Amino acid sequence: MTAKKPEPFSRRELLFGFMDRIRGRDRAETAPTGLDSGLAKADEVFAQGKWSEALEAYRDSLSTSPLNDEARVRVGICFYRLEKHTQAMTELKAVLRKRPHNLASLYLGLTHARRGELDKTLAAWKAYFDPGRVALMREVNLQCACIEEGHEVDSGEVARAVENALEADRKSVADTA
């Protein structure tokens, strides 16, 4: 008999992920990543902005369930927030090699911008599409247009503008909850 290949994600994740997208629940960066207590603790410290603690908690979780893409994206975000851009790129690209993921594309673009790689920033943000986050999409598209047109743009300013839009979007989601 041949060994069964591991699935990239469970049927449950597929079904509920699809239903959440229909309901618009994948919008929040702070949405829970799983059901086990380790992930719940990681999600809690992530929501509080304790990036080092969240990073360790997500890494512990990934050691037992390495196929959890949401946790891997969160690891990438933690690395980004800790200004460890090479590690952030590694984690985010690992998810994007498997499937499209909006937050991974957004943060990969931010990571490239922080590294001064505007051509790669543009490529990452071309894969980002979230019509539920209008203000954020507008800012990403504006920055992409400036890069494409060849305007003299500072990569740090590009990242800062999108980070500000991301923060404003996060606050508006929290205000409506």
Automatic annotation (TrEMBL):
Q: Which Gene3D superfamilies match?
A: Tetratricopeptide repeat domain (1.25.40.10)
The entry's protein name is Uncharacterized protein
The organism's place on the tree of life at top rank = Bacteria
Q: Which Pfam families does this entry report, sorted A to Z? A: TPR_16
InterPro entries recorded:
TPR-like_helical_dom_sf (IPR011990)
